[in-house]
Design brief:
The chain has helices at 9-17, 41-62, 70-82, 87-106, 110-140, 142-162. It is mainly α.
Length: 180
């Protein structure tokens, strides 16, 4: 068996870096409601922003009855101070929340808005023409008007049931607007 005179690439890489030392990995998912575990102010603000979205913003978006989240925001920021944020970091968290919400508003797709508006306009035009045809049929042929009226009524009822926010007929999985 001949001996090797050249070292392998793995041996060279291992020798160049010395013995393997495990690098400590910080897992921010193990956050135990204490901001003092996080090292920098930026990490604490980022964690506070994530918690705001999870605890305040997403429930607000999911609850159609909730009109304002001012009180929830005040209570949330006060709770974060109790969890270890300094008052200056709490103020910075407020600004970060306002900035993130303003950025979301800025990200509205105007083309999509116009497309939706155009579809609604065409739909309303279609409804008006259907009703005008029904009125014309009432004057000429009452039997066909009855058939057309029943058809329109069933169609309107079906469309309104499908356009509900949370249909009671279908198990619709709610959309998540998670940003972070």
């Amino acid at each position: 068996m001949p001996s090797r005179t050249h070292r392998s690439v793995f041996e060279l890489l291992g020798a160049a870096h010395g013995p393997a030392v495990p690098v400590p990995v910080r897992n921010t998912l193990s956050f135990k409601n204490d901001y003092r575990e996080l090292r920098t102010s930026e990490e604490r603000i980022e964690k506070g922003l994530q918690l705001f979205y999870a605890e305040v913003h997403e429930p607000y978006l999911e609850d159609p009855k909730m009109e304002s989240k001012v009180e929830e925001m005040k209570a949330f920021v006060a709770a974060q101070v109790l969890r270890g944020l300094t008052p200056a970091e709490a103020d910075e968290l407020k600004y970060a929340i306002a900035n993130k919400l303003a950025t979301e508003l800025k990200d509205i797709d105007h083309h999509k808005v116009m497309k939706t508006f155009g579809k609604a306009l065409l739909s309303y035009f279609d409804i008006i023409t259907d009703i005008l045809v029904l009125v014309d049929l009432i004057k000429r042929n009452s039997r066909m008007a009855l058939v057309q009226g029943i058809s329109l009524g069933v169609s309107f009822l079906f469309q309104s049931v499908l356009s509900l926010e949370k249909p009671f007929i279908f198990n619709k999985v709610p959309r998540s607007n998670t940003i972070i």
